[in-house]
Structure formats: structure tokens, C-alpha cells
Amino acid sequence: MKKVKKIMIFILIFLSLAIVFFYVVFSVVLPAYLEKKFLPDLAQQSGIEGFAWNVRKIGIRGADFAVVTIGEKPLKALSINSIQLNYSLSGLIRRHLKSIHICGLSLTFELKEGKIIFPGIDLNKVLSESNRSSKSIVGTKPTLPVSFDRIVIEHSVIMAKLNQHILRIPLDLTIEPMSEGSNILKCVINFYPFENPINMEAQIDLDSGELTVFGDAQNLKLDNYLSYLTSDKSPNIKGHMDITSYFEINLNSIETSVFNISMESEDFLFLSENLKLEKSKENNGAFSVKVHGEGLTDWKISTSGLAIISPALLEIPEIRADFRTVTDGWECHFQMDTILKGYDIQDLEIEPHFHGQWSGSAKYYNNTDWVVDMEIMPAEAPTDKQASGWYRIRGANADIGFFIPQVNISGEGNLEKGFAKGDLKMSGIYLDTQALSLELPTAIFSGETVPEVQEGEKTQHLNFHARLMNTGARIGAVNAKFRDISLVGTTGLSGLENVVNATFKIAGGEISDAMHDTGLQGISLEVPLIWPPNHKAEAGAFGIDVLKFKKKNLGKIRATLRQNGYGGELKGAYDSRLFPGLILRFDGSAKNTQKGMETRIQFEIPDYKTRNTLNIGDFFPGADGIFLDGRLSLNGDFYKLGPKMTGSVHINARDIDISSKEPAFAIKNVRVDFTLDDLFPLRSLPHQQIQFDSATIGNIELNDGNIYFQMQSVDRFFIEKTSFKWCGGNVDTNAAVVSIPIENVGLTLYCDRLKLTQVLEQLGGVKGEGEGAVNGRIPVRYDDGKIRFDHGFLYSTPGDGGTIRLTGTDMLMSGIPKGTPQFSQIDLAREALKHYRYDWAKLDITTEQENLNLKLKLDGKPVEVLPFEYRQDFGGFVRVDADSPGSRFQGIRLDVNFDLPLNQVLKYGKGLKDIFNKSR
Questions:
Q1: Rounded distance, CA 494 to CA 473, Å?
Q2: Quick one: pLDDT at residue 507?
Q3: How far apart are alpha carbons 12 and 9 in whole angstroms?
């Protein structure tokens, strides 16, 4: 009995000591060891600094931990206000906890330069430790160190530092088995950024290792997150977004097997400096983005309901893309629909809306190589402008039409070198504005990158080619056609000193002006270009095969031209066909200065002699039959700097002979010395001179002519003075203004010491000899193609008489019946004028309708005896035969009228009016 009692006492003492031991261990030793030694050393070995926690209680029913922190002040990576564990002693033996309750968790990290940084945690060291341990567990069934009935995390927050802003996201988390004893865990996470909750549910099957995650966020306000995604407010994202997601992850292999992400918005808006995107107003549904993936090998992405508002109104109904990983890389295929409705410059609208279907593919393999291919699928080769593939862009001042373009983009290469090529072909293009109409049947644009090795270094070059075929344009009455226009060149794509070398060409060009009946044919141009323009480019060529005027071939132009810096050089010649052998040479340059582009051109015609007599009608059809022969030289210059333009021309013509049969005139040995000192405005120096040796106009003959003038504009000349010799005397004229076209002009001829007999011979159509001079003035006018003499008069100087001998006066008797007193009087006057000495003479000159009327008045006497006798029965003098002695007159006054058709005097026929009319 005593023995039993001793045993019981021993057991009681042992139990008491055990209770005390466990109490000391759980209450003092274990908390102190965990708090001061085990967990701090474990954290330090894992690369975690600043770890601290407070074990308030560890008992047989539960444990209580407080103030768990990782990191140093003021910013800690992790802090927890309290952790409570509820369990039973038997549960601990089975490694089962009733609940884990975490309150006041705060997790802080920073996103910087693409890396996640946790304050006080050496993430590289943590990951390296994790990688060493993961090597042994990958492929094994996921297990938990303990089982539990429920884990609750509440009143917690995640703080992320993004772009100097801290995003604070409150969250709650609950984890519990689907049922008692189940190995399927259900996890519910609720995030509360701003006013919109984000809900996530996850299921973890511990037996199969499958993790399924569902996510849902409704009505997220996008601009709340903008400042965290970018350092400024540009671009700007506005609107609300609904997001749902689904993931299936295999924890055994740490791979995602299936995932789906769907995003939808009814008011999405993206704004940047040059781009504006929003949800399409044409789409009945919301703007959506959907992503479906099967592991990391096959992804499908699609969008719908998107529109680009600026710079163009472009609807994008759908984008579909497939990404697939292959053995040695990945490949992508995509399709995209676009509907271009307008452009925001001048409110351009497209009719019908431009519908393009894009397709393409890309591939990346061997970790270095890549291949891309993309095209836009046009309609079936439309040829009718009413076909479905025909589009028009209309604006306030422009109308543009075209068929849907064909676009192809392809390329291949690797990380060191690559080749890419793009082609754009457009057809049926036309442009119609108020001032310009343009037709472009075919336009081709292409470019390709080519790898090269220069001086041992690998570089990339871009070769580009633009070609316009059968281009036509119209500006007013001017029409232009060009068979081929092209720009071909190359440039580097690497380094700072990339040089662009290109050649611009025009072939088969024609320009015509129907209003002025002029044109250019066979226009060709080839200009090598270089950029930056540090050196001279290669020489190019410019040519015009035919210069046409009034259906006449005026000649051709050939020139060489060369880019020089920001300007260029030009040198060439115009070879005249109308003047065989005439060459106009020109030489010019343009260079950039601080004041602007400075242009200089010099031109000249060396001493030129006509090879054959030229018909001016070859230039002006109205002047057909007027012939010219002589010598010519010309030189001039042109200068422009900014808005300022100056220029001058000097013309020297000599040995010029001009003649015509109708109107009948001839001008001999014309000499012209003409200087235009300023082409802008077109105005010459005063006192320009035209000289000629002789000029005959019908019966009229002039000699030693001098004309002094000034060109005031292209259609206005000021005649300063004219002088010439006529009928043995001198003639001067008054000043006058002549406008082009010539409609009317008047000159007064001031005559000095003209021989009377020569005046009568040239104007009156008689033959005369004798001595004696007359003076006076003769107003001459040209009106509407007719020349008129307006009451001119010539008279002898009183006391200074003369002698005249006139024959060929038969026209004075025309129309007067013989045997009449009037006939006898004129007959007597005719006989007296055959040899008459006068003391005083006067000649009136005027035009009456189509006739030139000369009234000659003489006071004197006949030198010879006249075969006339006075008969009383007749009442006057009558002509007698040779047997009669006749009569000697001691004094007789004569009044004689010469009335001749002016056309007969000047012999201008019908040509004079035509010439002046053609000058208009």
C-alpha cells in the first residue's frame, strides 16, 4: 500500500514538474528562442533584414504573435499587427490548426526600372535559395506543412510605390477547405482600390496540384490608375472598365494550362498629343479585349469596337491574333478590319467608308532569327470607278478618288542583321480642287533594308523606290502628262552620319496651254540628290525635245544640273529651230545664305547671223509674208534673294533687213541697241535707240531713221522722239505712247525743207523734177487698222520760190468730159506744171474716207509758152495745135487736187490690219 502511495506521489511530482517544464518552455523558453534566435537567423540567412516579431503567447490551445516586421524604418516591406493561431493539443499532434487569424498586414514594395524592390529584402538571395529548394520539389505533389480549418487575413493593405506615387490597396483574404477533410482549398480575396472592389476566387486541389483562379472587377475607373502607370498625365486614359479573368495553373510543373481575360468598356477614351482612341460609336456593343491562352504555347487575342478619332476617323471593328510557341521559337498570325471614314484636316469625309482587311504573320526562332509578312487584301481588281473598291475623299476644297491600295510588308533576319521590304501600290487616283485636277492611274512605293559590311562594321541600309506612272494634271487651260516619275535612293539606318543618296527622274513629260497655244514635249529630268548636303552630288540632266508655239516647233533645251549643298548649279542651252543656228546659253546657281536662297542666272546669245531669210509668219501667223534677215547678240542676268528679284537684258541687233509684199514695205540695215536694266518690273532705260538706213512703205521712202524710246512695261512703250529724212528734207515727230495691242496711235510729222516735187511724186503718184522746198506738219493716225492723214499742210517759205516739172498727171483728167471749160482748165494746169516757176506754194494733205486728198496751190508763172489760146466764144483757154504760136503767161495761180486711193499710195493691201490684230 505504501509502495502504491509512493508511486502516486512520484507521478504527481513528475506531472507537476512536467507541467512546470512545459509551462516554462512554452511560456518563456520557446517564445524567447523563436523570437530572439531561430526566426531572426532564418530570415538573415534568406536575405531578409530588419526582421522582428513579438511572441506574446504560446499555449496548448493557441498562440498569439504581435508586431511582425521585415525591413527598417521608415518604410518596411512587411508588418503585421497580430497573428492568432487556434488549435488543440491533439490537433497539434496531427499538425492541424483550427484557424489562423492575421490582422493588420501591410506589404510594401516599389517598382523601379522594371524591377520589384522590397525594402529590407535581398530578393536575389531569396530567389536563389528558393531555386535550390525548388529543384527537388518540382514535379512532386504540393503539400501543406499543416492542415487548417480556416485562414483569415483582414484589415490589411498592399502599398506599391509607382512613379513616385504610392498606390494603397486594402484587401481581405479567406482560405478554407471546400469541406471537412477535403484537399480542395477555396480562397476568396477582395481588393478595395479606390471605390471599386476587385474580387478573386481560387481553388487549389492539393491532390492533383491544380489551381483555378477567377477574377472579377466591375466599373473600374481607369484614370484613377494613370498617375501610377506614367510619370505625367500624357497620355490620358479615361472611362470605366469591367474585367473578368480565369486561370488554370498546374502547381506540380508551375505552368499555366488555360487562362481567359476579358475586358469591356462603354466609355473608353485614350488621349495623347497626336492620337485619340475611344469606344466606337458605330458598334452596338462595348469596346472589348479578350485573351485566351492554353499554357504558354498558344494564345488568342481579339479586340472589337475600337475607333481612332484623331488624326483620322478610323473604325477598327475587329483585331484577331494568334501566338504559338514552337520548338525553336514562336510565331504569330493576325487579321484586322479597318474602316476609314474621314480625316480631321478640313473635315475630309470618305465615301464609301474605306474598308481594309489586313492579314499578316511573324515568326521568331533559334533565339535570333525572325520572319514577318503582312498585307492588306484589296477587292477583286476593280476597273470601274463605280465598283465597290472605288473610294472618294471629299473636303471643302478637294475631291480625291482611288481604288483600295495593295500593301505588302515582309522581312527576315536575326539579332545581328535583317532584311525587310514593304510595297504599296495604288491605282485610279484622281484629285480635283478649284485650281488643280490630277489623275494618277498607278503609283508604286517600296522600300527594303539591306545588311552591309563597311570597314569591318555591320550596318543596315534602306533602299527606297517611288514611282508614278502616266500621271496627268490640269491647272486652268494648262494640261500636263508624265509617263514616268520616280524617286530611287538609299540611306543608312545606323550611326549618326547616315547619308541619303537618291535620284529623281521624269520621263515622257508633256505640258500644253490651250489658251495660248503653247506647249512642251519630251520633258526629261534626272537629278542625283544627297542629304545631308555636305558635298556636291553627281551631275544630272534636263531636256525638252520640243517647245511649241502656235503649232510651231521653236526648238529644244538641253541642260546639266547638279545639287550643291542646299542649292544647285545649272548649265545648258536653248537650240532654236525657227532660227537655225541660234543658241541661247544659260548658266546659273543657287545657294543658301543667312538671308535666304540666293539665285543667279546668266544667259547669252553669241553673235548670230541668220542662215536664211526668215518668214516671221513662222512665229506669228498673222505676219506671214514678212521676211527678216540680220545679226543678233544678247546677254542678261537674273538675281533673286528672298523676295527681292532683279535682272537685266541687253540686245544688240544689226544688219537687219525686213520686207513684205503685202503690206508693201522694206526696211534696210536696222540697228537696235536695247537694254532692260530691270526685269522686275519690266522696264528699260530711257533713250533706247532703233536706227535704219532706209524704209519704204508703198510709194513713200524714208532714210536715216532714228527712233528713241523707253519700254515702260510689257505692253506699254513711250516714243520719245523720231527723226528721219524724207523727200530730201528732215522730219521729226512728237512724243507718243504706244500700247500693246496696238489699237490707235497718233504722230505729228514736223517737216523741214522737203522737196515739193518728191512729196508730190510719193504721195500724188506723179513724176516730178525741180527745185524748191516746203515746210510744215503732217498729223498721221492709226485707228482700227487704217492710216489717216489729218489736215496736214506743207508750204514754201515766203520769198523763197522754186521750179517744178511734173509729168504723169493724167489722173487729173479722169472722169471729166472733153470740150468742157473744166476740162480745158485742168488741161491748162497740167501743161503749166510741166515747167513752172513759183513764188509761193502750199500743199494740204488729208484723208477722206478711203482716199488721200492732196490740194496743191501755186502762185507763179509757166517758164515755157503754153499751147493754149483764149477764145471769147468758149469763154476760156483751149489747146491749139503746133501751127499756133500759143500764149506766154506772165502770172498764173494754180489750184490742183490730187485724189488717190490711200491703199494705192501705201500699198498695204489687206495685211496691215491683220498684223496689228495678230499682235493682240
A1: 39
A2: 93
A3: 5
How far is the C-alpha of 880 from the C-alpha of 869, rounded, in Å? 7
Nearest to 857 by CA among 749, 760, 765: 760
Phi-psi sector, 772: left (phi>0), alpha (psi -120 to 50), beta: left
pLDDT of residue 132: 53
Express as a percent the part of the chain with pLDDT over 70: 79
Closest CA to 500 of 453, 559, 447, 422: 447
The 3-state DSSP class for residue 3 equals helix
d(CA 338, CA 300): 19
Cross-strand bridge partners of residue 371: 363, 412
Residue 164's closest CA among 227, 240, 219? 227
Report how far apart, in Å, the C-alpha atoms of 236 and of each of 194, 271, 452, 781 are. 18, 5, 42, 82
More confident residue, 111 or 801: 801
Place of cell 502628262: 481
Q: What is the pLDDT of residue 344?
A: 54
pLDDT digits (tens, 9 = 90+) for 668-715: 999 998 888 888 778 888 899 999 999 988 788 999 999 999 988 878
DSSP-derived letter for residue 621 is: G
What is the DSSP-derived secondary structure letter of residue 26?
A: I
When pLDDT is averaged across residues 196-204 and rounded to a whole number, the result is 86
C-alpha cell at 53: 516579431
Task: Give the bridge partners for 471, in sequence order.
Answer: 482
Contact 424, 409 (CB under 8 A): no
Say how far apart CA 896 and CA 882 lie, in whole Å: 26
Under 8 Å between Cβ of 438 and 472: yes
In tens, the pLDDT along 60-106 reads 677 777 777 776 666 677 788 888 878 776 666 677 778 888 888 88
- SS3 at position 360: strand
Is residue 766 within 8 Å of residue 797, measured between CB atoms?
no
C-alpha cell at 117: 524592390
Using only the alpha carbons of the chain, give its radius of gyration: 56
pLDDT confidence tier of residue 722, bands split at 50, 70 and 90: very high
Query: pLDDT at position 381, please?
Result: 42
Cell 471593328 maps to which residue?
Answer: 317
Q: Report the first-to-last Cα separation within the chain, whole angstroms.
A: 159
Task: Name the nearest CA neighbour of 843 among 895, 807, 914.
Answer: 895
* Cβ atoms within 10 Å of 715's Cβ, excluding its own: 11
Going from N- to C-terminal start, the domains of the chain cover: 2-137, 416-546, 727-918
Q: DSSP of 813-882, one letter per residue? A: GTT--TTSHHHHHHHHHHHHTTSEEEEEEEEEEEEETTEEEEEEEEEEEESSPBSEEEETTTTEEEE--T
Q: What are the helix (H) ranges across 717-791?
A: 756-764
pLDDT digits (tens, 9 = 90+) for 222-255: 777 766 666 565 677 888 888 898 888 777 665 6
- Distance between CA atoms of 185 and 187, rounded to whole angstroms? 6
Compute the distance between CA of residue 548 and CA of residue 554 in angstroms, rounded to an integer.
6
Pair 164, 170: CB distance under 8 Å: no
Asked if residue 248 lies in contact with residue 267, where contact means CB atoms within 8 angstroms, the answer is: no
Residue 338, C-alpha cell as written in the block: 479597318
Mean pLDDT, residues 766-770:
84
Among 244, 255, 148, which Cα is nearest to 211's? 255
Alpha carbon distances (Å) from 499 to 417, 455, 467, 492, 536: 19, 16, 22, 6, 13
Position 610, amino acid: T
* 161, three cell numbers: 510605390
Q: Which residues contact 195 (CB under 8 A, 6 or more apart)?
A: 221
Distance CA 675, CA 687 (A): 10
| Residue 630: all three cell numbers together | 540680220
Decide: 287 and 264 in contact? Cβ < 8 Å.
yes
